[in-house]
Amino acid sequence: MNWRDVKDGVNKTVIFLFAFVGILVVVGLFVFIIKESIPALTQVGKEIFFSIYWYPTYDPPEFGMLAMIIGSLILTGLSSLFVLPLGYIISFFLYNYANTFERKIIKSTIDLLSGIPSVIIGTFLFFYVSPIVMKLGAWSPGNLLTASIGLTILSLPYAASLMEESLSSVDQSLKESALALGASKFTAGFKIVTKEASSGILNSIILTVNRIIGETIVVLMVAGGAAIIPKSIFDPVRPLTAAIASEMGEVSVGSLHYSALFTAGLILLTISFILTLISKTVIGGKTK
Amino acid sequence: MKKKQSVDSLVSLIFRTISYITFFSIILIISIVIIDGARFFKPSFFFEYPKKAMTQGGIGPAILGSLIMIALILLISIPLGLLTGVFLSEYGSKSLIGKIIDIAVTSLSGVPSIVYGLFGLTLFSITLGFGTSILSGSLTLSIMTLPVIASSVREALVALPRELRESAFALGAKKTETIFKILIPAGKKRIITAILIGSGRVIGETAPVLLTGAVFYSTKLPTSLLDPVMTLPTHIYFITMSYGVEAQWMAKATSSFLLILILIIYLIAFQIRKEEKNV
């Protein structure tokens, strides 16, 4: 053993220890968030998932999160309905029809969009878009439609760039043979390349949906915040993320309300974990 | 044949139009935020405290707060992310522990920011007793940045040619010597790009800071890491949501400044990425 071997060993140990932090954080996330959720889960019971009455500050308080869970799901559904087709169209355009210049500027602009913080998009919508939506018939400055627009803007970079990557990763010769056989560019791209890239596109969809469901600030600012089940796109909603962010500042640590907000966090953590694992399996199945 | 061509040109026209509309909408949003806020820029705006219920004064303490936070976050997350990325690329691919760390890092990248906020709140602010502070906020955001840096470092190292490793080994270099003296310097530009993009993201993070580190308004500058802090994004959030029309200018001006800051960081990152491709 000389000095260089010792140094190599020490460095290796440091690398292993640091890499281990990732595991610690995942375990810590679950341990701490489950631990803080337990009081609400045991004392409120299953009502916490199945009741729509969220009155945490009433006496007696009620902690039903169903309206907020549905709020999160409707918001995610509506935003996905906007962003997934839009993302696909843009990625398909970039892949199939755009010239080099168009590719370059559109891709960089979409990359830039991914850097705009959600608080800036929220403020933008609040000042410039909400008044227009109010004129269209909304009765609250925050509502389902405005929030979905915000989520669409924020998740578009994910959808478009991930889908574009999966289309581009398909072997070029496949498209060329289709073209040579007389298929139109559209048929080659849509029926051949997209089909071949389907697992990558599915993966893009999962990651985009995951990103939408966890987004907090935009929905906190422009979703309206009423814990009701919306009946139209102009109604306000209160998704789980917004409830956590807006109420956490006012609860006393250790109270049932505090614990119920951690339960909301646990729901989000579980959803994101499952979606990430599915996405990992989708990619894994493809490459191996 | 004609029919096929007409389908193609029709689809191409529609898709091109939609893409262009999206492109111009993004440019429009960026321009409105920057131009409508920059109207209020003057030297005092960048140095003074907010005054008279946010209707006058400036954002000096929020700028300082964001800078302190970003410095601390980079100090923690660069070594953490770099070494995790090194592990995943150089040691991790085959072993069980490597697979577990890989899954852990991937899962972390999908966890919503508000959940990190909850985690930071219970672990750093309450259990460890750091309270609502710069330290709690920075630690929380560092953990969030870890997967971003780690996966980019891994990609940067995996993309390096095998010969680079083999020639280093052939010359008798140890594995970690190869990593630190050959591989990391060779992937330097991509790693710096990743760190810049990570910083651009984290400087705009709001939700976790609201739970762990932010103070709405403070009349003095933080004197220790255990003091709470004003940051640019939380400042924008508080003003937009809790103040009237009189204070809106400050939210607009702060948004404009923060966006310019992030655009500069991104443009530098893109420039480095471009140089790296041209080499």
Core attributes:
heterodimer; A: 288 residues; mainly alpha; MetI-like fold; two-stranded antiparallel ribbon; 12 helices; 76% helix; B: 279 residues; 2 domains; globular; hydrolase (chain B); cell membrane (chain B); phosphate transmembrane transporter activity (chain B); MetI-like (chain B); Phosphate transport system permease protein PstA (chain B)
Structural description of this entry:
The complex is a heterodimer of chains A (288) and B (279). Chain A has 288 residues and is mostly helical. Chain A has helices at residues 3-44, 47-50, 66-96, 100-113, 118-136, 144-168, 172-180, 185-196, 198-214, 217-222, 240-247, 256-287, and strands at 54-55, 62-63. Chain A has a single domain (54-287), classed as MetI-like (MetI-like fold, Orthogonal Bundle). Chain A contains 12 helices and 2 strands, in the order ααββαααααααααα. A two-stranded antiparallel ribbon of chain A has the order 1-2. The longest helix of chain A has 42 residues, at 3-44. The two termini of chain A are 40 Å apart. The model of chain A has no long low-confidence stretch (mean pLDDT 88). Helices cover 77% and strands 1% of the residues of chain B. In chain B, a hairpin with a 4-residue loop joins strand 1 (50-51) and strand 2 (56-57). In chain B, helix 1 (2-38) packs across helix 12 and helix 4 (96-110) crosses helix 6. At the A-B interface, helix 1, helix 3, helix 4, helix 5 and helix 8 of A face helix 1, helix 3, helix 4, helix 5 and helix 6 of B. Chain B: Residues 63-269 form the ABC transmembrane type-1 domain. Chain B: Keywords: Cell membrane, Hydrolase, Membrane, Transmembrane, Transmembrane helix, Transport. Chain B: InterPro entries: MetI-like, MetI-like_sf, Phosphate_PstA. Chain B: It is found in: Cell membrane.
